[in-house]
Each structure stands twice: as structure tokens, then as C-alpha cells.
Amino acid sequence: MIVKKLSVALLALFVLSTAFAAASCRSSYSGTAESIVVSYAPFQTLALLWTADERGLFKENGIATTVREYDTGAASLDAVLNGGADIAVGPAEFPLVGRAFKKERIRAIAGIDKIEHIAVVARKDRGIEQASSLKGKKVGTTLGTVSEFYLGRLLELNGLSRQAVTVVDLKTPPEWENAVVDGEIDAVVTAQPWANSARDRLGANAVFWSAQSSQPMHALIIATNEWIAEHPELVNRFLKSLAQAEEYVNRNPTAAKAIVQKRLNLDASDMETIWAQNQYGLSLDQSLITAMEDEARWMISNNLTNEKTVPDFLDYIHVDGLMAVRPEAVSIIR
Fold first, then answer.
1. Nearest of 51, 89, 118 to residue 254 by alpha carbon
2. Which domain holds residue 188?
3. Which pLDDT value is given to residue 75?
4. What residues in the chain have per-residue pLDDT under 50?
5. In Å, what is the CA distance from 65 to each residue of 21, 35, 263?
6. For the segment 137-196, what is each residue's pLDDT rounded down to a tens digit?
7. How many angstroms separate the CA atoms of 313 and 333, rounded?
8. How many structural domains comprise the chain?
């Protein structure tokens, strides 16, 4: 009798948990679908965005997305500022710092990833063995992106100034890879998967190391203050879609990897390496503020802005949406 009662209780628990899981996966939204234009650059930081799209989560939450692709996260943010998109998904915190110095009316709605994927790829035949060997070399990166900051800080940590190298501004993914492989520059500081590709093409002539010194980059969702103020409920539903995608990624990492692998056209071995570099999940935490303040001080000291005071980055964070959807993911001190 005890066994029978236990079995009935377990069955009831199973039914309830299954019903709860199913309900959590279904959208409670029943209104008219609203459109969002999303700008992005194709990096592995977009796992939550691509998973939400692939799983139909935006549609379930009453959102019709139109996507526009750019070469860099900074360019995707400029699209928002220029009216070409509503939300930029994936730009790093560094472009936000630059726009804060210009007093642009934008805010980060959430972080979607913390990642270490900026690397140095250098040529051995140019006498480069370590970071200090970059002195006097031509080093490529993309100005205005977080790669520029990591290059500058890497030089400083190795006793070199920014002026110790000739910085070459590379604008597009083919340039990031081809310039160092073809010998137009001596080294490049760029993101995955192009860093790995350049390393593999150089073969035994490649020197490769992380440019980030274990400081993760924050991949963000950013929109203008006006758009956020006009669409608070739409912001919540967009974040809800990504929160559901995060749950799917955590439960189904193999399937999620396959989604990202397909979007980036990577082979399986590269996908495994790249996946391990990411901490996917919605967040707004104090480490984001700390990173932006660090980058702002670096920009001031390198005369990359005419401003002399670090902005109050709390003015560039919108916490309400994430607090409504996943309050435990917000730990910024206000």
C-alpha cells in the first residue's frame, strides 16, 4: 500500500513538473506581433540570439525580428545610432564607452555573454616570439572596437606604449585574416574564429596567444534611450525570449553548439574550442561597470577622447527590463 501511494505521488509530481515545464516554454503573449530590427556582427557571442531564433522563441513572444549583419559590433551599434536598427545584439562594452564620451543617448539592456576570444596572431619570421617582441612592428586591429583596447593594454602590461608599434586599422573579416597571412602586417589582434583561421593558415610560422589577460569581454544588448522608453513591454518580451534560449542552451548544449556551428560555418574541432571560451547568460553585474571604467581611463590616458572625466556608466545601463524577466541576473550596485 505504501509503495502504491508512493507511486501515485511520484506520478502526480511528474505530471505537475511536466505541465510546468511545458507552460514555461509556451508564451503567454496573445497580442499582435511587433517588429524589432536587430543589428549584429557574426561572432559566437550570439548563441542566445541564434537559439531564440532557431527555436521560434521570438515568435512565441509576439516578436517579428529583422536582422542586419555588420562586420563589427561597433558598426552594429552605429546602426542603432543612425536609425538603421532598433537593438544591437553582441557589441562589446568598449564601443559603449566611446559613445558615452560622446554623450550618446544609449543604454545597455543586458549582457548576453562573457567571453575571452580576442587573440594575437603573429609571424615567427618577423622575429616575434612574445608580446615584448611587438616593439617596432606593424600590428593590425580594428580601431574603435574592443580589440583596440586589448592591444593597447597588452602593450602596457609588457612595458610598451601604443606608440611602440605601428597600428594598422583593418575593417573587415577577410582583412583580419589575410593581412597577417599575406605578410602585409607582422601581427594581428582580432577575434575568433578569424584568429584561429589565421593561425592555422600560417602553420608553423604562427605565434598565438590570448590578448585579454583573463579579463572577459562583455557582449551586450544596446538600444537608444528613446526606443527603450517607447517600448518597455517589448524590451521585456525580447529579454524573455533570450532567457528561454539561455535555459535551452543550458539543458541542450550539444544542440546549441550545432546552432552556432551552422551560423558561423565552423568545423567541429573549432566549435569545441570556441564554445569553451564563452559564459552564455543574461546578466547586468558590477564587473561590467568595472570594465567600462577601466577602458574609459585607458581612452583618456591615450588621448582617444577630449574628455578628462570617466562617465557615470550607471547612466548607460537600463536595468528595468532584466529585473522584470530575471532579477537574480542583476547585481549592479546603484
1. 51
2. 118-210
3. 97
4. 1-27
5. 25, 6, 17
6. 999 999 999 999 999 999 999 999 999 999 999 999 999 999 999 999 999 999 999 999
7. 11
8. 2
The domain that contains 315 carries what CATH number?
Answer: 3.40.190.10
- Please tell me the distance from the alpha carbon of residue 196 to that of residue 199, in angstroms, as a whole number: 5
The three state secondary structure string of the chain is: CHHHHHHHHHHHHHHHHHHHHHHHHCCCCCCCCEEEEEEECCCHHHHHHHHHHHCCHHHHCCEEEEEEECCCHHHHHHHHHCCCCCEEEEEEHHHHHHHHHCCCCEEEEEEEEEECCEEEEEEHHHCCCCHHHHCCCEEEECCCCHHHHHHHHHHHHCCCCHHHCEEEECCCHHHHHHHHHCCCCCEEEEECCHHHHHHHHHHHHEEEEECCCCCCEEEEEEEEHHHHHHCHHHHHHHHHHHHHHHHHHHHCHHHHHHHHHHHHCCCHHHHHHHHCCEEEEEEECHHHHHHHHHHHHHHHHCCCCCCCCCCCHHHHECCHHHHHHCHHHECCCC
Cα(181)–Cα(199) distance, rounded to whole angstroms?
8
**What's the grid cell of residue 45?**
557571442
Q: Is the dihedral of CA 274, 275, 277, 282 positive or negative?
A: positive
Asked whether residue 157 falls in the same domain as residue 236, the answer is: no
Q: Looking at the structure, tell me whether residues 200 and 235 fall in a common domain.
A: no
The C-alpha cell of 314 is what? 550607471
Q: What residues does 284 pair with on adjacent strands?
A: 330
Count of other CB atoms within 10 angstroms of residue 68: 13
Does the N-terminal peptide bond of residue 311 adopt cis geometry, omega within 30 degrees of 0? Answer: no
What residues are paired with 66 via a beta bridge? 37
